[in-house]
Every structure is written in C-alpha cells, then in structure tokens.
Amino acid sequence: MQITLVTQPFAALETDALVSYVFEETDPVQGRVAEIDKSAAGLLRKLTKSGELTGKMLEFTLIHAPVGLQAARLLLVGAGKREQWNSAALRKVTGAALRYLKSRSVKNFALLVREGHATEEIAQSIAEGALTADFETDKYKTDKKNEKIIEAVMIAGFSEAERAAGDKGLSKGRIIAEAQNFARDLVNEPSNKLTPRILAEKAEAMAKEAGLAVEILDEKKIADLKMGALLSVAQGGPEPPRVMVVTYTPANWKPGAPVIGLVGKAVTFDTGGISIKPSDGMEKMKYDMAGGATMLGVMRALAALKPRVKVICVVPSTENMPGGTAQKPGDIQTAMSGKTIEVLNTDAEGRLILADGVHYAKQLGATHLIDAATLTGAIVVALANVNVGVFGSDQAFTDKLLASAKAAGEKMWQMPIDDEYRDFIKGSFADIQNISSGKGGGAITGAMFIKEFTSDTPWIHLDIAGTAWNDDAKPWLAKGPTGVALRTLVHLVLSY
Ligand code: BES
Ligand code: ZN
Ligand code: ZN
After folding, report:
1. Concatenated DSSP letters of 457-477
2. Phi, psi values for residue 169, rounded to 5°
3. Which ligand is located closest to the Cα atom of residue 322?
4. 291 lines ligand 1 (CB under 6 A)
5. DSSP 445
6. Which of 206, 235, 336, 351 has the most CB within a 10 Å radius?
7. Cβ neighbours of residue 278 closer than 8 Å, sequence gap 6 or more
C-alpha cells in the first residue's frame, strides 16, 4: 500500500474518497469541516441539524458524488470529544476508515487532517493506523477472487511548509507499522508452520536483511550453556529448542553505556505439557510466541530508526509438549543461573524459558531488562483484553515505560510486585517452585518468578496474554494478532 503526503487543496483531490474526522461538540461543522461544508453547498450542516452527523466516536457518514469536490465520495468519521482526542484516537479513526472503505471495494482515499493537525506526530499516527488496519489474516485462504485491496492513501491538509515534518512522520510510522505487522504475521502462523527452528530461520533472515548482528543457539549450544530451565520444557517433544540473539549497536557505542536487553517468550505451541490444557480453545496457544515476535519486530524497527542506545534481544523458543520424554510435576531442574526449580505445573513453562532468557541477556551485558510474554491466564482475569500488565523492579524505569505506552497509544497498567509475594514461590524441595502455593495473584507470582533471575538489574515484565490476540475484529484491526507493546518499546528505546 502506497502512502504519500499531498499539499493540494482538498476540493481538487481526485480520489475514490475524501475522508475527514468530525468532533462531537455543540457545532460539529467547524474549521476544515466548515470549509468542506462550504464546498458542498451546506450539506454537512443539514446533516448535523437532522442528527445524522454528530461526531460520536467512529460514527460513519458516507456521501456519494459530493457537490464541489473532485472526490467520488466524502466519508466523515466521528472522532469523539475534542478534549479527549489524541493521536491514538486518530490511529483508530484512520484504521476504521480504511477497513470501512476496503469492505466497500474502494481502492484509494485521501485523509484530510483537521486544522492545526499538520504535524509529524499526526502523519506518523495516520501511517501506523492505515498500515496496521490493512493487515489481514487470510494468508492461508486459497480463494482470493473477491479480495479487496486499498492501493493508495494520501495524507492531505499539509502545506508545503509543513511537508518536511509530515514526510518524516510518515516514514517513521511506516517503519513502525511494518515492524508491527511483521510480528503479527509471525503470531498468525500456526504451530505446524512455525516451529522454533523455523522461527529462528525467520529471525535470522530478518536480522540479516535489516543489518543487525544475529546468532542462533541450537540445542547443543543451549546445552553447553546449561540452560536447564529451557531444556526442561523442550524435552517434552521432538522439536529442538532455539535461542535467537539479535543485537543492535549504535555507531558511537562505548563500553559502560547502558544496554537494553529485550527478552521475549516464544513458545510456538503450549499444550501445557503433562499438566495438559483442556482442549476447548487450545488452538489459540499458537500465539504463545507473541512476546518473542514483538521483540523481533522491535529490533526490525530499531535497525531502521537507529536509536543511540545498544539493544540486545534474546528470544528463547520451544514447544511445550506432553511426550513420553516430557518433564513431570515434581521434577527439579537447574536453571542457567544455578538456581534449582521445582516444576509443580508443566503448564507454567513461560517463566521457565524466561528464567534462562533474562539470565543470558544479563550475561551478554544488558544493564536494563524488559521481557514480554503471554505469561498467565490470571492477567486476563485482572485486566481482560484491555490493558497490558506491567511489573517493574525499578520505579523510574517503569515510569519511563508507562510514559512511552501513553505516547504510543497502548494501554498498560502497573501491577504490584511486593516482596510478600516472594513467599508464594519459595520451594519446598528446591530453591524456588514454578507455581504459587498461595491463593490468587497468579500474574504477580509469575512475574515474581522471573524477577528471581534478574538479580539487581532494573527489570520490567509485560504480561501480554490478554492483549496479544483479538478474539473479535475491531473496526480498525483484523481479528487475531495485535502486535501489542511493539510501539511502546520502540518509543522507549528511542527516548534514550
Ligand atoms: N501460555 C499460558 C498463558 C496464557 C493463558 C496465554 C491464556 C494466553 C492466554 C501459560 O504458559 C500458562 O499456561 N500459564 C498458566 C500458569 C499456571 C499453571 C500457574 C495459567 O495461566 O493458567
Ligand atoms: Zn503454559
Ligand atoms: Zn505458555
């Protein structure tokens, strides 16, 4: 999909649809919308009077052959209250407009920004909104006869003087959205098409293409490094595990400067192992590698955006299978750090592979750690599919991440991680056990387990179990993988 910024007056734009957005206020026909109304001989004011055009969030008003415009259609999208409006709302408005027009076989449209909105940030949000909305999960459908395609989007409403800022935002938005779609594409793959080995091949190809350093650890190297927690999960099936290490080093990097370690859970299928999951809904466990996919997508974006800080990405990957060689409840494993773990539930496998993942990232030099994982069903109970659960050992670092989440328009909510929860995972027969012996707080005790392997390194854990997958399509996003947390993490790294 082509996206370009144009500076012609909106009335002269030859396009399948001119799209703008309307605020819910006493008089929704203001500013640039009043200019459209003037071109269209007062049609919009008539529609507000009749109550058809109110500006309510995602209200669609489609007008064919509008008077005074070269465009074949005029689409007005409700943007909600002006006071509550931000770039996140614009991302949704743009995405919803794209999917609305696409479903009606429209091939191209121009999005006209409102008065005062011709900025870099706005252009970035439009590019992100359009490209993420355009992503479909129909890769394995063979009948594409009726496939609908948006070929081109124009961003309008910028002057020549505002073009440089707009173009900058547009190219940044494209890089980030394409990285997000890269991650979503990986998550969309079923487990028979995406084993740990295939994921590693794809990670390696991405890194080489992007110009990033990459090392793939195979089962032998993983054993040499004594990653006993990861190996214990992998022993349940025939597919060997992999650990992907992708590194971005800025041009002027000197030892002693901070190094961000990004660690992502990539369980390509989670059956639960011997503590097997119920069959109902088990097919969704192909998305148990979303944390790893997000981190790989972040690296892909960083390679192009060139932040000033070094970033090391570690993605441990395995299946969690209940084969005859699988680990069993009560088994005691030794993690790479040397800590012993009593595996009381083989379905709490994400924390096991992350234990070795964060330890290894630290050993490679990470001074700040962030992990992302579809870790617990408990976070879905706590925050549903609305907020990412955020856990942090260092409040200043966590605050930085929460500020980035706000700027990137991703909802995240900080959860507690008090020392009291440590008692819940104290081992009876080993140093630590992989599930809580107490009641409740499942997402917290999961986080607490990972924390045990970070020593004193500032660390953030993102539990994305509830937010990495949309069970239903949203007006601005297809059903399925969301690529959540990628934009926040890119923003955070760029802020260093
Ligand atoms: N992959 C699951 C968590 C999950 C649940 C992801 C729902 C996405 C949607 C994880 O490995 C798991 O099974 N966790 C267990 C932990 C429990 C055994 C302590 C859970 O949440 O039930
Ligand atoms: Zn599990
Ligand atoms: Zn899992």
Report:
1. S-EEEEE-TTTSEESS-BTTB
2. -65, -40
3. 2
4. no
5. H
6. 351
7. none
